[in-house]
Design brief:
The structure is a homodimer of 887-residue chains. By secondary structure, chain A is of the alpha/beta class. In chain A, 46% of the residues lie in helices and 17% in strands. In chain A, helix 19 links the parallel strand 19 and strand 20. In chain A, helix 5 (132-151) runs parallel beside helix 7 (179-197) and helix 13 packs antiparallel against helix 14 (366-372). The relative contact order of chain A is 0.06. Chains A and B meet through helix 26, helix 28, helix 29, helix 31 and helix 33 of A and helix 26, helix 28, helix 29, helix 31 and helix 33 of B.
Chain lengths: 887, 887
């Protein structure tokens, strides 16, 4: 490409540009050139490079030298090729002037059609086409569009005049206006133009052309275009190109028409030709919705020749572009013209199916298939959704945080107990709470979905719901709960009323809405296996990583099984605290907590040991052959103690501790900032007997299942480490317990002891911490809390403001903050590996299932990510893409 | 020093070693050599270098080659010099074998006296001294000491026999035993020795000597010595030296004696000769306490010649060592011998007075004077203390955290209101609370001291008490408060009972104990001015720092005045939240908080503006000529809302908001982790009108006082910044308000806008934050909370365990954790300066008054530290020392 070449001609089967020149020609221009070269019929024209736009703005709104001549030359070439002249009174050349940047910005920039018409040319057009009405209608449209787009004359000013004429002649539709009426409209339009601009409507087509080019370049920096680029993070473009193209018309009768089609079904991905068209119509008629477009398949009968041409084009384009295309065409008097082709947008279902089928058709490679489907598209396939037809007709009652994807509908209940009771009666329930707490697990488990009025994306409800794969809307402020009543924007809902939630969008709907179930199709499974093949390629081809595995966060055998079905390669986080809320265990654990001396605590813990052991055997069996990382007790003890007077009394009776004394003990556990309090390994230090019991249970369970032939790889994870010394003490304690277990069981099982890195100080001193760790697992939920100083339970109050005011691009609890938190992660990995080059490192925070964060984890050299079972397929895809992107 | 030389001889006015060789000869050996060279009479002997100890342990417990010969040669030299021989039956040489490391470890290692006695030599000693009883007593002591120290024979086994003989002959005191009795004791002692060791007591003095040398070197690694070095962080020593020295005896009659003295008074620092002695006694008699030692001044009359010798030695030593010396001496038959000299330990008072006077005497430089006084010594001078005489006789009732130094005594009350009521009645009160909160300020202000049963070193009570310079004990768990009763270890105390607290040690005493008031003496003031001169030298001589100033944290004009008197050079942190608790202001602020719309809030804030402005004019006036950093509102709004139903009702009446609605509003402000919640600049973002009012008040106040001739340098500080964008928005808001103020006032005042760096993310992205900051002030309280994940309000539960188990060396809220938090501080400073090389940087956390942390702040290049008014003198000293230490 010459530095000085600003314009690229296309026409008669030959173009100066090609599809690779999007940066300069924009998406539209580059593909028009490409199609021209492919021999596909495209109306001829030329594209003014985006370099001109760049130079225009850099050079104080003036065009580079030589541009005028280049436009003249190209215009001359176009006139020669078409045999028509701009403004000609016999057979005038009409052109469109359209914008087109390298990245599509639909509707953001300006377009002028039918350019070249004036008082003379309109006659030429009438004569040439034999259709006077068509010519005058085109002229009046041109004046209106030019006035609006190029000179800023209000659209309404023209519409007023049109309405005036329609009224005068007594018609309702534009199409009922006669030639004479249209001539009068043109006259009135010219007056409007003069009134608003102080000038006559320009009769010189060259002036029309330059004014339009100016306008298109100018529109690059109009307010809405700037805003659009900000929102969509479109950066680094030169500007827009300008396409000047000879006009074709689909409204020349029944042998003409216009349409839009996809080379495959964009909803399902099925390999059928899919689209709509209208005969005797222009593109804007389709948009206006006055006539209903026809299915493309009907064109076969109406105009088999043109249809065959279209089929040929479809095949040619797919073979050439190796992807589904979205094309615009016009048929002018039986002749097909392509006006645009681009990669077609599609649903998740279509993306996967088309990708898999294209691989089988030999069109693309597996790597291309994997790179082409976004994790968000995959997510759609994993959850039930509201029937799109139903959704289109409804207005949401309220909107909260889209805390866990999928849709659910049910009768609302306000307590977990009610949820369980109603569910037992066979009812379909939706649990509506201010916020949930660990005791609500039972009710959450039976509910179709969860709706909370407070709490953020990582509140208890959100985390647990994602873990269960259940739809959840959190922090929906408009829901005001009082007893067994919820008020939503002044409407009252009682227990038993139906609501529907869409956890994917955060929308709450009134009543019982029709849902569509999710399913893993054959292509989906196949696709994910390819993703795994590519991901495991990383193991073989990179030195940095010894693998990049996808594990799951699962606390129960049931969840572990689901995760394995979804392709999890082990458990990265098995929380033990939820286990203590099980029936029978909570009461024992409470006894332990309120005991005053270590002897009593040890005695009580003995009762817990067999129960805890059973939890682990189930999980080890479910994860046969894969590692299981068990995190020792993490939450503060006060989360487990009785809350109500009634519950306190029960515990008092059981333990024989006087109520007053018991209440005092419970009160003494209260903390002002529990997130920064006596939890995690701090409990392990002050109550070593708890961790000892847990380690014993884990290792006894491991020995037991191994005897039964299960391949078990227990990994004991110690949470909330802030200093190397904590880990050294707790590791020593654990090893001493393990030694005893091995002795008693008379067998040894391979095991690892490692730590969460979730306290900033642990990341900063990771070289020292690594001394005592076989592995690191980044707990980026807590790490984000501490690094930002945000409590995930409380940040919901200001985070929306923060995102509105663009202080934060995204919720850092959803998408890892690479700039800040990421520094600590990177430091932790680097320093850990400085001390132990082979240190196994992973992530088990919520970010382990978020594609952008997975890419980051891959780049800093982690060995695995771990996420909730329902995110595992997404993580498998994202991990494969991370490898492809960075290899 | 030759590599191969292991032994250094001293005697007859000449020594091979000197005071500079402590590393090899230990403190004792090096000073003995030095004194010998100075011509001071010292019993001759030799020192075996600590290099031998090092080699011994490195070489598998064996001595380096050639050592045996070197000991033989030195021993021979010693025998020639003294004219006596080891084990001689006429005039035996007796020696002591003493340990002595480079750093004193009192009582940790072994000593053997009277070595050289055996069955023959005892007769020689009797003959030579003409005192048979003395000789046999010395022999039995030697057997006992050798047996115990060298061979591990239990002390009690010897004592039993001694008691047996005393019983047999019917005497009570050792001194009443006759020669024959002592001979029998020797016989029995030898039997004890044989029984426990299986060997006869060694008669060969060479064997005695080597066994003793072995024992002393062995004692370097005994358990208590290792523990002592750990606790006192003594590292990097080679080991201990061994001093073999000819014995002198102070118990040869009334022309003999022994004593300990200081070259100045170690309590007051007065330049007088201060000490005690006993005639006809050995060192151990003084220790045993059987006889009461005499004041040194009385020796002048009893033995003017010896006294004059002592005076000469005193002068010689002080001139030579240029510091107060602590010396041990023995007089043997009218002849003075010095056994030890070392730098004398002293009180804070003495340290300052001696240092100042020595400068005036021309003995030392000002720099030396400053380097010599520890900040802890200075602290003693700043607070009242319990009379040491009274304290010696008391046992503390309980012990808590020494949260704010100084002693206080008073009648206990349990609420702030009672404190104010009782104080009005003229009573002296001590406020005892579970914990304090901002509403208690009034009561805290009138109390002599504060005692809380919960909370840590940086709890509200602790921080406010330190700010007020009031004694405080926090987190004293043994105090159990119920209503107007406190139970302390099963004893009940009621309102009005007297208690005394020592905030310096954390001890609580029963009753009203006598206190000694604090005072800044003339020397003290002088000393601090020198410290400032040295510190300000830093400004002139270093390029890195543009000064290293000491500012204060003060919220009230009164505190600001105190701080100026203490030498503060500006305010580094003026918290504005305390201002809102003032009478009249709280109610208005509450109205603002519960208002639902911005218009009402703005209206209410208008009422606060003049009151807030008045707060600032007072502070600006008090700090005339110095900068004042005002921090905008930091705590979450729920700290300000009514707590009781009664208070809610009052506010409901006032605002006209129904109680139920008001209570709901208040409840909605509740946070689970307020420390990580909606506070600091997050309030500024969501309620910009609050910060706008504060900025307006600050700048209007600045303009007003400037009109009156006050030199004012307001610095607006925005707290809790986590992202650069927050600061950019809030800076823009503030500047817009300031512009309006300047316009209205028709004048401009120099100002700065900066931020706290207290969120880890702010430190990590300091380069970006610096873009919008004129200064950084490290808020290391919060930074420590987030970096460790410790809530300072809750950590009191586990921190004591953490320090016991040596997980943490010290409470990180008191002493900056340089390893972890320090990394973030250093990163913040470095990145901030990368963006703005001249960025002004300071610290305003609690650590700003802690000497070790001040040194760190100096080293990372901060421009100032800021601390509570009562810590300012300490910070001035610590800052000067930081400069001296690092220059």
């Amino acid at each position: 490409m010459s530095e000085k070449k600003y314009i690229y001609f296309f026409g008669a089967g030959k173009a100066e540009g090609n599809a690779g020149m999007k940066e300069y020609l924009g998406g539209k221009g580059a593909n028009i050139a490409e199609m021209t070269n492919l021999g596909i019929p495209v109306p001829p024209g030329f594209t003014i490079s985006a370099k001109v736009c760049d130079a225009f703005y850099k050079n104080n709104n003036s065009y580079p030298e030589g541009l005028k001549d280049e436009v003249e030359n190209n215009l001359k070439h176009l006139e020669e090729l078409t045999g028509r002249k701009l403004g000609d009174s016999k057979d005038p050349l009409l052109v469109s002037v359209r914008s087109g940047a390298a990245i599509s910005m639909p509707g953001m920039m300006d377009t002028v059609l039918n350019l070249g018409l004036n008082d003379e040319a309109v006659k030429g057009l009438a004569e040439k086409t034999g259709n006077e009405r068509f010519a005058w209608d085109a002229y009046r449209r041109f004046i209106q569009m030019f006035g609006d787009v190029v000179r800023g004359v209000p659209h309404s000013a023209f519409e007023e005049k049109l309405d005036q004429v329609k009224e005068e002649v007594g018609v309702e539709l534009d199409t009922d206006l006669k030639v004479e009426d249209l001539k009068r409209v043109v006259k009135l339009y010219k007056e409007v133009y003069r009134k608003h601009t102080g000038e006559d409507f320009p009769q010189d087509p060259k002036k029309q052309l330059w004014a339009s080019i100016d306008a298109v370049f100018g529109s690059w920096n109009n307010e809405r275009a700037i805003k659009y680029r900000q929102i969509n993070e479109i950066k680094g473009l030169l500007g827009t190109a300008v396409n000047v193209q000879s006009m074709v018309f689909g409204n020349f009768g029944d042998d003409s028409g216009t349409g839009v089609c996809f080379t495959r079904d964009p909803s399902t991905g099925e390999n059928i030709f899919y689209g709509e068209y209208l005969l005797n119509a222009q593109g804007e008629d389709v948009v206006a919705g006055i006539r209903t477009p026809q299915k493309l398949s009907t064109l076969k009968d109406k105009n088999p020749e043109v249809f065959q041409q279209l089929l040929d084009v479809r095949e040619k384009l797919e073979k050439h572009y190796r992807d589904m295309q979205d094309i615009e065409f016009t048929i002018q008097q039986g002749k097909l013209f392509l006006l645009q082709t681009r990669t077609g947008k599609r649903t998740g279902l279509a993306a996967v199916r088309a990708a898999v089928e294209m691989v089988k058709e030999g069109l693309i490679t597996k790597e291309e298939a994997i790179a082409r489907v976004t994790p968000a598209q995959l997510d759609q396939l994993l959850h039930p959704m509201i029937d799109p037809n139903a959704k289109a007709k409804m207005i949401p009652l309220a909107r909260g945080l889209n805390a866990s994807p999928g849709a659910a509908t049910g009768q609302i209940v306000f307590t977990a107990d009610e949820a369980e009771k109603w569910a037992k009666e066979g009812k379909t329930v939706l649990l509506v709470r201010k916020e949930t707490s660990p005791e609500d697990i039972g009710g959450m488990n039976v509910a179709e979905g969860i709706l909370t009025s407070t709490g953020g994306m990582t509140s208890h409800a959100a985390v647990v719901a994602r873990g269960m794969g259940k739809p959840c809307i959190a922090g929906c402020k408009d829901v005001v709960i009082t007893g067994k009543q919820a008020q939503i924007k002044k409407r009252n809902f009682s227990e038993g009323d139906w609501l529907t939630i869409d956890g994917t969008t955060g929308e709450v709907y009134d009543g019982q809405v029709k849902l569509i179930k999710a399913g893993i199709t054959g292509e989906f499974a196949e696709f994910l296996i390819w993703a795994d093949e590519i991901r495991h390629e990383a193991v073989r081809s990179t030195i940095k990583q010894k693998g990049f595995l996808v594990r799951t966060n699962a606390d129960l055998p049931r969840d572990a099984k689901v995760a394995r079905e979804f392709g999890a390669e082990g458990i990265g986080l098995c929380r033990t605290e939820h286990m203590f809320f099980d029936e029978g265990k909570l009461e024992i654990f409470q006894e332990m907590i309120v005991a005053d001396d270590i002897a009593t605590r040890k005695e009580v813990l003995k009762k817990l040991l067999p129960l805890q052991k059973k939890d682990f055997t189930g999980i080890f069996e479910a994860m046969d052959g894969f590692p299981v990382t068990v995190r020792l007790l993490d939450p503060p003890l006060h989360e487990f103690v009785p809350k109500t007077t009634e519950e306190v009394k029960v515990l008092a009776d059981k333990t024989g501790i006087p109520v007053k004394q018991l209440q005092a003990k419970i009160d003494s556990l209260h903390e002002l900032n529990p997130m920064l309090g006596h939890r995690g390994c701090r409990l392990g230090i002050t109550y070593p007997e708890i961790y000892d019991m847990q380690v014993q249970a884990i290792m006894e369970a491991a020995c037991e299942v191994e005897k039964r032939g299960v391949k078990v790889f227990p990994e004991i994870m110690i949470p909330l480490i802030g200093t190397a010394k904590e880990l050294s003490i707790l590791r020593e304690n654990a090893e001493s317990v393990i030694k005893d277990v091995f002795k008693n069981e008379n067998r040894q099982v391979e095991y690892k002891i490692g730590t969460m890195i979730e306290i900033p100080r642990a990341a900063l001193t990771a070289d020292k911490v690594a001394e005592y760790a076989d592995f690191f697992s980044f707990g980026t939920n807590d790490l984000t809390q501490m690094t930002f100083g945000y409590s995930r339970d409380d940040a919901g109050v200001f985070l929306p403001d923060y995102i509105d005011q663009e202080i934060l691009e995204r919720d850092p609890f959803q998408v890892l903050d690479q700039e800040g938190v990421g520094q600590l992660v990177e430091t932790g990995v680097r320093r850990g590996r400085t001390r132990k080059p082979d240190l196994k490192i992973g992530i088990c925070g919520e970010h382990g299932g978020e594609p952008g964060s997975i890419d980051f984890c891959y780049r800093v050299g982690m060995n695995y990510v771990s996420c909730s079972p329902y995110r595992v397929p997404i993580a498998r895809l994202a991990a494969a893409q991370a490898y492809l992107r960075n290899k």
